[in-house]
Design a protein that fits this description.
By secondary structure, this protein is of the alpha/beta class. The protein has one domain: TIM Barrel (Alpha-Beta Barrel). Helices cover 40% and strands 12% of the residues. It has 12 helices and 9 strands. It has helices at 11-17, 41-47, 67-84, 95-103, 126-132, 160-172, 183-192, 216-224, 235-238, 248-261, 288-299, 301-318, and strands at 4-6, 49-56, 89-91, 107-114, 136-138, 175-177, 198-202, 228-231, 266-268. The strands form 2 sheets. Strands 1, 2, 3, 4, 5 and 6 form a 6-stranded parallel beta sheet that branches. A 3-stranded parallel beta sheet has the order 7-8-9. Strand 3, helix 4 and strand 4 form a beta-alpha-beta unit. Helix 1 crosses helix 3 (67-84), helix 10 (248-261) packs across helix 11 and helix 11 packs across helix 12. It is globular, with a radius of gyration of 18 Å. The two termini are 25 Å apart. It binds zinc ion (ZN). Zinc ion (ZN) binds next to loops.
């Protein structure tokens, strides 16, 4: 069975806002039912997930005093969960910690942050993110923020603060994630930052021509930066107006990216528990092995192993995470 690794997921939303105990098994959602969820420890284990990214995403200030307080609260919830379930899963801040956890048969959990608004316009707030060992910061989210324009926003580029931030990311050992950024913002990030760029979750414009997705040129630029592209499980972004598309949407997206940049810089960025609908046949994380089995008919076992996890592992090794 393939080693499964995921670049983007949202268990922390359920753990924080719904106060769910994800050490126990829950039922998968039907459509967008927020009372059910895609991810918990028993189902991650059943799926054979070896590496999972837990995204800290603070959509609203409420019920916190500030976005920063929200980040601290979510990180605490994450760390408490890791502590409580330390025989099964652990927080990894480096590639060697990922390997050590996996060798003990445990899942490695890494942190990332979605939505740069949580910095509240202050570079000092990078320090805490650095101490958590986060892999990347998704600069934008649904609306423009004080860093960059959003794909759903005004289409603006980097702000003055955004340009400052680009200079400071390497020292904090945090990668920029361009998912959700406007097209202009995407190109300006490449002007002000040199190093691997991540696109953590989304699709390609070849099949769904939305600003939220990557054009062929953008795919090539991410590859040139020695970055990584995560394919999400939300059919809406994998094929235009698709709500019920199946596994072929994943293999088609993979193949398109592969024709442009080869097979090594594509991984899964599922966005599970990000209140998405998932491709047909995938009710939750436990269905990932069945999904991979299905797309093997199309891609063959070697490419599926790369997509499922090998590429993400190799990337983390390459960047000396
Ligand atoms: Zn997102």
């Amino acid at each position: 069975m393939e080693r499964i690794a995921d670049l983007h997921s949202h268990a922390l939303l359920n753990m924080t806002y719904m106060r769910k105990d994800l050490s126990k098994k829950h039922k998968p959602p039907l459509f967008w039912n927020p009372l059910r969820n895609h991810l918990d420890l028993p189902r991650l284990e059943a799926a054979g997930v070896k590496l999972s990214t837990f995204n800290i995403y603070v959509p609203f200030k409420f019920p916190f005093k500030s976005y920063q307080e929200g980040v601290h609260r979510m990180a605490d919830i994450f760390l408490e969960f890791m502590e409580k379930n330390s025989t099964r899963i652990g927080h990894a801040r480096s590639f060697s910690e990922i390997e050590a956890l996996n060798q003990k048969g445990r899942i490695a959990a890494i942190l990332a942050v979605e939505g740069g608004h949580i910095l509240e316009g202050r570079l000092e707030n990078l320090e805490y993110l650095k101490s958590l060992g986060i892999l990347y910061l998704t600069l934008a989210h649904f609306v423009d923020n004080d860093i960059v324009g959003a794909a759903w926003g005004s289409k603006q580029g980097l702000t003055g603060f955004g340009k400052e931030l680009m200079k400071n990311l390497p020292a904090a050992r945090i990668l920029p994630d361009v998912a959700h950024t406007s097209t202009r913002g995407f190109y300006e990030i490449f002007e002000h930052y040199s190093g691997p760029v991540i696109f953590s979750h989304g699709g390609v414009r070849r099949f769904c021509d939305a600003d939220r997705n990557l054009s062929d040129d953008q795919i090539k630029m991410i590859a040139q930066s020695r970055g990584l592209i995560g394919i999400m499980l939300y059919p809406w972004y994998l094929k235009r107006f698709s709500l019920f598309g199946g596994p072929e949407l994943i293999s088609d997206t993979y193949k398109h990216i592969e024709t442009l940049i080869g097979p090594d810089r594509i991984c899964l960025g599922t966005d599970l528990d990000g209140y998405i609908r998932t491709v047909r046949g995938v009710r939750d994380v436990a269905d990932l092995p069945a999904l991979l089995e299905r797309i093997k008919k199309n891609l063959g076992p070697e490419r599926v192993a790369k997509l499922a996890g090998e590429n993400l592992y190799n990337f983390l090794k390459e960047i000396n995470f």
